[in-house]
UniProtKB/TrEMBL annotation:
GO cellular component assignments: membrane
InterPro entries in UniProt: BilAc:Na_symport/Acr3, Bilac:Na_transpt, Na+/solute_symporter_sf
Protein name: BASS family bile acid:Na+ symporter
Highest taxon in the source lineage: Bacteria
Keyword Transmembrane tagged: yes
Gene3D superfamilies (alphabetical): 1.20.1530.20
Membrane topology label: Multi-pass membrane protein
Keywords tagged on the record: Membrane, Transmembrane, Transmembrane helix
Pfam families, per database record: SBF
Location of the protein in the cell: Membrane
Length: 332
């Protein structure tokens, strides 16, 4: 019989942490918030599609370096980073808690880039055109790559004894309905009504910002007890996924001698994941699972803290944007 590494680690841990093994999903996301979230994700993705034109794809194909780099960092670094953080920190905890929380963390590492990365790229004086191309590219590829990443890394964590089955059919269906469909509809709208498409593009970006502010204003006060009882390892995974993702991708981009503005863009695009989408996938795919509340913890914490992390990173990036840097030719 195959034993999950998390289950085996219980016997090796030097200290057992007291954790909640059951969390009511309504404590994490209420029914009203679930409905609002699904609408918001659809509108955000619709806005992303409404901002695309055939010219954007032509330009991307003329300079495919950004697409290639973005694909590698998004679906190469982030799922692997999530897996590493799970192995290092969540294995210390009670398996009844760690296994569902680990799936939420792995999913958070496997989803595509979030549209708020475009906003932070703009304020960090990055390459906004590259940012939009990378977001679009990762969003379209996510229908294939997100389930693939879950299958590859999940095979090492969620085995027969883990009592967690990944509903791949539900996840793919959610990705098609919440990603592919609204993006295509947005592109069609832009094709036949450029003015309305431009408005929807702006609305999609504003909705993404609204989600973060809404989360801070309503979710944190209501879930204060849950936040206080969540182990520090879970916080480290949720915060570290975005923070380490940004700087690992930024370091790789600088190591291969990309323009600093492009390196900042790639860092932010890689580390800023689509938190609302991850939460929507969990709610749609694990609605009847008793562990859905635990699965939601890392996506919810990530969505909360990534805006704080990205704000400080953006401030640091802006300070690094010197006059000498602006004289360097940018080939992307």
């Amino acid at each position: 019989m195959i034993t999950s590494p998390i289950v085996s680690a219980q016997n090796l841990a030097t200290q057992t942490f007291v954790t909640q093994t059951q969390v009511n999903p309504d404590e994490v996301v209420t029914d009203f918030e679930q409905t609002l979230l699904l609408i918001m994700v659809f509108v955000i993705m619709f806005g992303l599609g409404a901002g695309l034109t055939p010219r954007d794809f032509k330009l991307a194909l003329k300079r495919p370096q950004g697409l290639i780099i973005g694909f590698v960092t998004q679906f190469g670094i982030m799922p692997l980073l999530a897996f590493g953080l799970i192995m290092l920190f969540l294995f210390q905890l009670d398996p009844a808690y760690a296994i569902p929380v680990a799936f939420g963390a792995l999913l958070m590492g496997a989803v595509p880039a979030g549209t708020t990365s475009n906003i932070f790229t703009y304020f960090s004086k990055g390459n906004l055109a590259l940012s939009v191309i990378m977001t679009t590219n990762s969003t379209l590829w996510a229908v294939l790559m997100t389930p693939l990443a879950l299958a590859i890394y999940g095979s090492f964590i969620f085995t027969q004894d883990s009592q967690l089955t990944i509903p791949f059919t539900n996840i793919v269906a959610t990705l098609v309905l919440m990603l592919l469909l609204p993006v295509i509809l947005g592109m069609i709208l832009r094709r036949y009504s450029a003015n309305v498409g431009a408005v929807m593009e702006l609305l999609g970006g504003l909705v993404g910002v609204f989600f973060i502010l809404f989360l801070m204003a309503t979710w944190v006060p209501r879930n204060w007890n849950l936040l206080a009882s969540t182990p520090w390892q879970t916080y480290l995974v949720a915060i570290g996924l975005g923070l380490f993702g940004i700087f690992i991708a930024y370091g790789i981009a600088r190591a291969i001698r990309l323009h600093p503005a492009n390196a900042r863009t790639i860092g932010l695009e890689t580390g800023i994941q689509n938190g609302p989408l991850a939460i929507a996938i969990v709610l749609a795919s694990f609605a009847d699972d008793p562990n859905v509340g635990l699965i939601l913890i890392v996506p919810a914490l990530y969505s909360l803290f990534i805006v704080i992390v990205s704000t400080f990173v953006t401030i640091w990036f802006r300070r690094a944007n010197t006059a000498a840097e602006q004289k360097i030719p940018n080939l992307l």
